[in-house]
Structures are given as C-alpha cells and as structure tokens.
C-alpha cells in the first residue's frame, strides 16, 4: 500500500454530540470520517468510521483510527470501539489495549 500520509490531512471537529475526525486527501473532493460520542469523563465511544468508495482502499480509515489512538495517548482518554472497523483495528494492535475502556 502506498504511504498516503503526505497527501492526507485529518482534522478534529467538536460536535454537539461528541466529535468527528475528518480525513481529506489532496486532489479529492470526497472525505472520510470517524465519529465518537462521550460515555463518561475520560471515555470516548468510537461509533462510526466511513470512507466513501471514491477514496477507499488507500488506508484512510486506518489513518483515522491511528489519529484517534494518538489523541487518546496525548489527551489521556480511553476508547470504547463500538464501530466494527475500530474494534478490528484494536484486535490487530494489541499494544493499544491499554486504551480500552
């Protein structure tokens, strides 16, 4: 798989119900996203990860999860992987297990 990190931008946006990581690929109009909701103080539930077909198959969803994990490490919150994609990524990365709520 080609490294997309040099053409991928991920921004976090607060929402009324939690937050949303939005991924934009240079030269593309479609965007992917990962949404989360708060469960309690210091715990975020990863609810949905969506990447349109137009930008699919390039690792965008995986990069969204990596950003969530990186933020959890730096900001000190735990994650409930309700989204099946996020749950699968946690299973494949046992070094993230300390971040599970």
- Give the neighbour order of strands across the main sheet: 1-2-3-4-5
Q: Note poorly predicted spans.
A: none
Shape: globular
Series of H and E elements: EEEEHEH
What's the average pLDDT?
A: 96
Percentage beta strand? 35-45%
Biggest sheet, in brief?
A: 5 strands, mixed
What is the radius of gyration computed over CA atoms, rounded to a whole number of angstroms?
A: 13 Å
Q: What is the number of helical segments per DSSP (H or I, 4+ residues)?
A: 2
Kindly state the percentage of residues in helix. Answer: 10-25%
Can you characterise this structure?
By secondary structure, this protein is an alpha+beta fold. The protein contains two helices and five strands; from the N terminus they run E-E-E-E-H-E-H. Strands 1-2-3-4-5 form a five-stranded mixed sheet. A hairpin with a 2-residue loop joins strand 3 (31-40) and strand 4 (43-50). The longest helix is centred in the last third of the chain and has 16 residues, at 60-75. The mean pLDDT is 96.
Key attributes of the depicted protein:
single chain; 101 residues; alpha+beta; 5-stranded mixed β-sheet; 2 helices; 38% strand; globular
Q: What's the short version?
A:
With about 100 residues, this protein is of the alpha+beta class. It has two helices and five strands. About 25% of the residues lie in helices and about 40% in strands.
Secondary structure elements and pairings:
Blueprint: E1 8-15, E2 18-25, E3 31-40, E4 43-50, H1 60-75, E5 78-81, H2 84-92
